[in-house]
Amino acid sequence: MKKIIAMLLVGTIGLTTLTGCTSKATKEAATTESAVDETSKEVQTPAEEKTQEAEAVTIKVAAIETAYGAEMWTKVCDAFTAKTGIKVELTTDKSLEDVIGAQMKAGDYPDVVHLATGRPAALTETLIKENGLEDITDVLSMTVPGEEKKVSDKIAGGFTESSLTNPYNDGKTYMAPMFYSPCGLFFNSALFEEKGWSVPATWDEMWELGEKAKAENIALFAYPTAGYFDAFFYALLYEAGGTEFFTKATNYEEGIWDSPEAVQVFDIIEKLSAYTEKSVPSNANNDNYLKNQQLILDNKALFMPNGTWVIGEMKDAPRADGFSWGFTALPAIADGKDAYSYTWFEQMWVPAAAENKDAAKQFVAYMYSDEAAGIFAEAGAVQPITGFAEQLDGDNKLFYSIYDNGAKAALGSFAATDPVEGVNFADTVFGTVNSLVSGDKTKQEWIDSIKKDSDLLRAALK
User: What does the pLDDT read at residue 27?
Assistant: First the structure.
């Protein structure tokens, strides 16, 4: 559900849920009179002094309400206050941009914001373009409140090294990685067992399976909406040329789309479109995307790209007898090459105009505590904390352990640029897949439009 909210839906609920999360620690005043005997004197410790200072601070935290709900934020705020003495004024809303956007224009900024990039209102992207985010690199060296480990020791590798957290490519971190979801190909593992089919390890094996499925009137592929090709496309870029090629492509390097690696990517997606269930484009919209997801549950298509939230979305949907979710990374380009699974994750940030930046950074550091991670996990939100997947069970253990089973993590996205009138690169790159499947556009027309818009965006790079 998070992905649908993040990439496709415009929320319409307009009321703000405002909750004060407060907790006060009780203190004893220290006696300073010299006449008091040393054994009876109450001396104030540094920890108590810090707590007294914290009590005077109230930070404003604004968090988008998604399928995980708002209650987990209330619990985390309570726990943070109990741990640090810093009080929290919490705002959660499904249309958070509508609530805090107007306040920010009036100069009233939250101290901490949990709002990912990629949403239709693009509030986070606007702050990025206006240099409105605080540098939070120092949070990585902070000790997690209530623990002995540093934040950098807790966050899983690679999550603070992509454009999703370091948008200016200046070696500094401006956004903290939050709830993550591995994206890959979902399928009915029971059907594969019944047919005696193996999950393809390479794209050549994928095409072979496509022919077997076609013989039984089953499509090889389906997708909810074309927007889901973002994670798919990014992972494929990594498979074709690794990190260096991915970086060049996502920064619009001149000539990159004519490279052999790019040709491989375009060829695979063109061929996959021919194996896609033909009814998909007509239902690939906000109203009917569940019908495309249902194709997997009805054994009418084998694979679909998605994230772990799909399990919750389809929990009440009818399904084939014995249906069991399976999950895999994209097939590798060839034998011996790496397979990749893109990781989608949300972000938390501190506005540059925030009033209580030091306390805000403590809150961000607390997000990686075992205590906070446990609260989030109860609601189904998983933090990118090293080894945390070992504590999960059921389907979640299967999904979040994908990187323990040989797949590599693909991270990052197209670089932010100054606005270019008439250019929506997500539509150009991902949205056009509908037209490839329907036959309304050719692969070359698709490539030409990508090259044209890429040239414009390269000139607008920050």
Answer: 35
